[in-house]
Write a structure and sequence with these properties.
This protein is an alpha+beta fold and 301 residues long. 32% of the residues lie in helices and 27% in strands. It is built from 9 helices and 16 strands. It has a 5-stranded antiparallel beta sheet, with helices on both faces. Strand 15 and strand 16 form a beta hairpin. It is globular, with a radius of gyration of 20 Å.
Amino acid sequence: MKIAILSRNKKLYSTRRLVEACEQRGHEVHVIDTLRCYMNITSSKPEIHYKGDNLTGFDAVIPRIGASITFYGTAVVRQFEMMGVFAVNESVALSRSRDKLRSLQLLSRKGIGMPDTAFAHSPDDIQDMMRMVGGAPLVIKLLEGTQGIGVVLAETKKAAESVMEAFMGLKTNILQQEFIKEAGGADIRCLVVGEKVVASMMRQAPEGEFRSNLHRGGSAQLVKITPKERATAVKAAKVMGLNVAGVDLLRSERGPLVMEVNSSPGLEGIEKSTDKDVAGMIIEFIEKTAKPHRTRTKGKG
């Protein structure tokens, strides 16, 4: 097979591992800088050009698109889909998962457990929002934040009011979320490939920190998940329409709660903590699933 990996940096661990997995299984693989792609949008023969060359003959594309280039990246994936190339994660699914508010609304509609969440535009509604999520302490999140950036734990009502007013004064979109104290600064990352959880790890925040992201100094270790956690992760990925996803869960007194569904999950932490060949599993999924014009929008919203 001829496989394209959309990645801005071929030296990144996840990109390197996907390239290795492709080559080990005898596939032709090309790493393509998403922002260097440009498109001929025509009804007769849509094309993607890259550094002067017309990209043709690809069987599958693996999007590894950073949050900062979501708009352009999804346009490139959509163009590949128009050309009949199988996208591991489709453009619509990428857009859904990158919009925090939209993704939470879709999960809510399907009855998937998640922390109580409030969203408003006016500072006049801050007090009622806080009551919706159970009061302080509570978590305040920027809609555009990634890797734990733009996430604040407000431990008191006064602190929450100050942070909310500051963010709203900057005209940024923010969420208030219930703080799950019993999670103890830990979450579970479930790596879903083709409606199966193929690996899972527990991430623990360092002392004095509540964000467990590895980029923020968190640690990771192998964890055994429950059947309910497994089912929740698979269902969350399916609601987004993602074939490959990192689903972040919190363990709460009322069961597993979905914190986020990531459409370009990093492979380094989960491969090293579980000793599993996740990259190889993704390529195996492509081998079994990829066919011309097989990409189709799944789910709604």
